[in-house]
Amino acid sequence: MQFSDRDILTDLITGTKMISTGYHTAVLEAANDRIRNTLIHINNEELNAQKQIFDLMHSRGWYPLDPLYTGAPMGAEATGIRGPEGPMGRMGPGMPPGGEVRNW
Amino acid sequence: RMTEMEKLHIMEQLKAEELCARKSQFYLNQTRDPAVQSLLQQCVDKGQRHISTLNNLLQDAGLSGMAQH
């Protein structure tokens, strides 16, 4: 079976995340300072590897990200709403709870 | 020198590192992309390095680690 580069990197980044999670838990439950510091060092290498994989995937559009939803009303040019009434009535998109009229 | 919990975590991580290194080695033959190949080779090297470090921790505590492949 042939895997695409995207398949390969997706599996790789999933693996590094799981391994890093394992090291993180191991660090939290380590009592011996030398063991703890060694696990922290290994985990840092794992985190750096994950970042490199992410950067390559992201640069090729293989790791889609959604921009932050702020809840702020969108501009009229995007929503088509021209005034406080809007096409969906007084509680349409962009209207605050309570329905008070604001002029954005 | 080592708690039972530390031993269990290290053994678990050894298995995970071994699997990751083997998969990366397998994927190396599946891609022709130099950037992907470079990352995969790094993962193989990193995995072997981590396996060696974890084995050393076990051996220092008087336990035998995972056999190197």
Helix content percent band of chain B:
over 70%
Whole-angstrom Rg of chain A? 24 Å
* Low-confidence sequence ranges of chain B: none
Largest sheet of chain B: none
Q: How would you summarize what this structure contains?
A:
The complex is a heterodimer of chains A (104) and B (69). Chain A has 104 residues and is mainly alpha-helical.
Give the key terms.
heterodimer, A: 104 residues, mainly alpha, disordered C terminus, B: 69 residues
Description:
The complex is a heterodimer of chains A (104) and B (69). Chain A has a domain at 5-59. Helices cover 53% and strands 0% of the residues of chain A. Chain A has 3 helices and no strands. Chain A has helices spanning 5-28, 33-59, 76-79. In chain A, helix 1 (5-28) runs antiparallel to helix 2 (33-59). The model of chain A is unreliable at 85-93 and 95-104 (pLDDT under 50). Chain B contains 2 helices and no strands. Chain B has helices at residues 4-28, 34-60. Chain B is elongated and about 45 Å long. Chains A and B meet through helix 1 and helix 2 of A and helix 1 and helix 2 of B. Chain A: Residues 76-104 are annotated as: Disordered. Chain A: This is Spore coat protein. Chain A: It holds the Pfam family Coat_F. Chain A: It comes from Desulfotomaculum copahuensis.
